Amino acid sequence: MKRGVYRTYRPGYPPAVTNSERSFFGHPGGLAILFLTEMWERFGYYGMRALLILYLTAAAAEGGLAMSTADAGAVYALFTSLVYFLGLPGGWIADRYLGQRKAVLFGGVLIALGYFAMAVPSMVAFYAGLGLVIAGTGLLKPNISAIVGQLYAAEDERRDAGFSLFYMGINLGAFLGPLVCSWLGEKVDWRTGFAAAGVGMCVGILVYMAGQRRLGDAGLRAAPAERPESSTLQLRQLALGAVLGGVALAGVAAAWGLGWLVPTAESISNAFGVFLILLVLVFFAWLFRTGNWTPTERGRLWAIVALFVAAAFFWGAYEQAGSSLNLFARNATDRTIGGWEFPAGWFQWVPALFVILLAPVFAWLWTRLGSRQPSSPVKFSLGLLSVGAGFLVMVAASVRSAGGAKVGVGWLLATYFFHVVGELCLSPVGLSTVTKLAPARVTGLMMGVWFLAAAVGNYLGGRVAGMYETVSLPTLFGIVAGTTLLAGIVLALASPRVRRLMGGVR
Ligand code: PHE
């Protein structure tokens, strides 16, 4: 019997099978569309981010906003944190109302408008632009990842590899964005750099629109609830709270940008930090109380909590790439090659390049190790240890740069190498582990939780960067190194317990 000819139609048969006629490296064709869309979105984000703190702190004569590092760190922390924080309501809005497919499209449009607004020579437009990027990324980022997951049937073994390929798209964008935008922004004009980010996002939108058919019905409907009546109501209230909180915060940010709010950048950022921590506590408390979780589901939720804390610490160190390490590149690193000084932001594409080069090595390593490979909690612990090691390198570099000396490029390169090794232990595993650990009816929400960890981390990292001029650099980097190394050791010791909580998920 010829296979395929007598294929019977089964309702609800995974779209991965029906859409596989044009495949992408052996994956569903739709992955190519999501890969390119996310690549261009990240092109814009990392391109803009490479400029952000440099633009905020540059002197007025250089076209910058001439902020103090403390203020710039506060703005940067608030912005980069909100970008991922809004992934929480963004996931929920898609689950309940828009569907993931439309959420990605609307999000992309808001983001593109945001970058173009940042390119307009007006403070109101600049802050409105930041707000649009926050809202748009909240809609796009968690939902595009959720659609990737839906390209595969639950038991499809290609799923993890699919996420890895998607991660390549992210980093290809993160590589190209700073390359183009930093050069334009630092060497030509800041606003041209922001506009280039907007052009990138527009390309992403066009690819996404043209590729709709290849996505089949992934992301068109929310995952079917197993027990719809059990928890949706309370989850709805919870998520509504998150949306209202987000709106309130966006309002505060806008009022601040318009000068209606007298408090300083720092005090607003402080208030947001308190809010964020309270929200995380309330969120998890609510989550545990709200659903009629089975004991296995409950254990898995506890495992998510442990991984959440680890991820927040990890991103708190790692995401300083765009802030404190970007400042170190500008102020304390010798960037001349053949008499030409390359843009400070060019260091921003280094981690992405390392990811692209090292990801296949890690993929090979995990496959090679097979069932002997470390469990997710151990990988998370390795991630923390490695990012901590990277900051130890920065301690040495900053000691050498004391008194205004410029150090060689090797220091930041070595730091980023450690950071990326850490990232490859933690981030791709995290994305897929959280989706697997989450009870099916809250997958969308759990994607939001993964972004919440990134939000906490970005906040912490931004605030640390704000101390760049007030605390001596070896001390500052030393504290970051110490904290992450300690967290890594604690998690390593706790990993057998966490594994038991995971109830069979690796
Ligand atoms: N490099 C990752 C990305 O841009 C960083 C990240 C991790 C962002 C987790 C959000 C959440 O996707």
Overall description:
A hairpin with a 2-residue loop joins strand 1 and strand 2 (340-341). The protein is globular and about 60 Å long. It has a single domain (22-222, 294-501), classed as MFS general substrate transporter like domains (Growth Hormone, Chain: A). The chain has helices spanning 15-18, 30-57, 69-85, 87-98, 100-118, 123-150, 159-188, 190-210, 228-257, 265-290, 295-318, 324-332, 349-369, 376-400, 410-437, 443-466, 473-501; strands at 336-337, 340-341. Strands 1-2 form a two-stranded antiparallel ribbon. 53% of the residues are buried. Helices cover 74% and strands 1% of the residues. By secondary structure, the protein is mainly alpha-helical. It is built from 17 helices and 2 strands. The structure holds phenylalanine (PHE).
